[in-house]
Amino acid sequence: MFEHVEAFADALQRVRRDAGLSYRRLAERAHYSHPHLIRATNGKQLPTWEVARAFLTGCGVPADLMPVWHRRWEEAGRDPRDVVGLLDNAETLEQLGAAVAALARPRSLRVLAELTGIPRATIQAWLQGTRLPSPDRLDLLIRAVGATAPERAAVARAAKRLSSARERSPLAESA
Predict the structure, then answer these.
(1) Which of 18-27, 44-53, 118-127 has the lowest mean pLDDT?
(2) Which long-range contacts (CB under 8 A, 24 or more apart) does 146-154 make?
(3) Residues 118-146: what's their mean pLDDT?
(4) What is the DSSP string of the chain?
């Protein structure tokens, strides 16, 4: 389990304690059951953004702070060192797609399409590894999900490596 998930859960617990709320009282305000909210702060699994947002709203966190909390939630869901390792070891389009999907997680295809203007079907093909994206469109997607500089560099290296391998492939010549 990522230490970032535990840190996020601890932060949620601090907000609840600072608000002086029991889980039962918070459940009334957040419109989720108290066991559901307890699971959101156990540090074993990252809650969905919807649950985290309801938790924070129920604790009285102002709406103008939600973007900050959303970024923190996104960061908790991935460990950049793992993603960079996946990208550096990617030898197939499927492996590249899986690594890019890890960067994009937990956003839906619809959200990714809205962020980038790239059709959902195209993004889905990239994430499934059935299509190699052009470098500029891939960078657009990676920037839109807030990838760090090392992550962006690893994506570019992997895409270039796979593109070069496809150009050298005898199958590419016959296609």
Answers:
(1) 44-53
(2) 146/71, 146/74, 147/103, 148/80, 150/80, 150/84, 151/80, 151/83, 151/84, 151/87, 151/103, 154/83, 154/84, 154/87, 154/88
(3) 92
(4) --HHHHHHHHHHHHHHHHHT--HHHHHHHHTS-HHHHHHHTSSSSPPPHHHHHHHHHHTT--GGGHHHHHHHHHHHT--HHHHHHHHHH--SHHHHHHHHHHHHTT--HHHHHHHH---HHHHHHHHHTSSPPPHHHHHHHHHHTT--HHHHHHHHHHHHHHHHHHHHSHHHHH-
The pLDDT value recorded for residue 156 is 93
For residue 175, is pLDDT > 50? no
Q: Which of 27-31, 36-40, 102-106 has the lowest mean pLDDT?
A: 102-106
Decide: pTM greater than 0.90: no
CA-CA distance, 127 to 73, in Å (whole number)?
22
